[in-house]
Specification:
It contains 5 helices and 6 strands, in the order βαβαβαβαββα. Strands 1, 2, 3, 4, 5 and 6 form a 6-stranded parallel sheet that branches. The chain is globular, with a radius of gyration of 14 Å.
């Protein structure tokens, strides 16, 4: 059984819906998962040596939603090297914008810089093709859950 913190960056609720579905799927697989809707650095630090799943949409020119910016800044400014962190990313975006899934890509780049270990591939969900993002995320989460130690 793995312990997973699910960290949400959302504007209109789609990322939260995806995160809640992921929480249910992971729990059904025997993992302990908890969703953080307005995540802070202290929440993230509880999962050192465990797993983090970042579920975020993208705003503006590839920016992160306000709800997850404090977590991102805290990781960037205060943590640095964190090779013991294992994580996954579900990025929601719209391919009609040049900054498609920019929020998720930005979070992934930061964690890679800090030597965190990504588990599996990042999932990028295109809102223009998949208006119900959970139809894409649920099978990905089922697979991701099998990769957890």
């Amino acid at each position: 059984m793995a312990v997973v913190g699910i960290f949400v960056g959302t504007m209109y609720g789609n990322s939260l819906l995806v995160a809640e579905e992921a929480e249910a799927i992971l729990a059904g697989m025997g993992h302990k998962a908890t969703v953080y809707e307005d995540p802070e650095l202290a929440d993230w630090e509880k999962y050192r040596g465990q797993y983090a799943l970042v579920v975020t949409s993208t705003t503006g020119q590839g920016d992160l939603p306000d709800s997850i910016v404090p977590l991102y800044q805290g990781i960037k400014d205060k943590l640095g090297y964190q090779p013991e962190m294992r994580y996954g990313i579900i990025a929601l975006g719209d391919s009609t914008y040049a900054s498609f899934c920019g929020g998720g890509k930005k979070f992934d780049a930061l964690l890679q810089e800090q030597s965190a270990q990504r588990v599996g591939e990042m999932l990028m969900i295109d809102a223009s093709e998949h208006p119900e993002p959970e139809s894409e995320s649920n099978p990905w989460v089922e697979h991701w859950g099998t990769l957890l130690g």
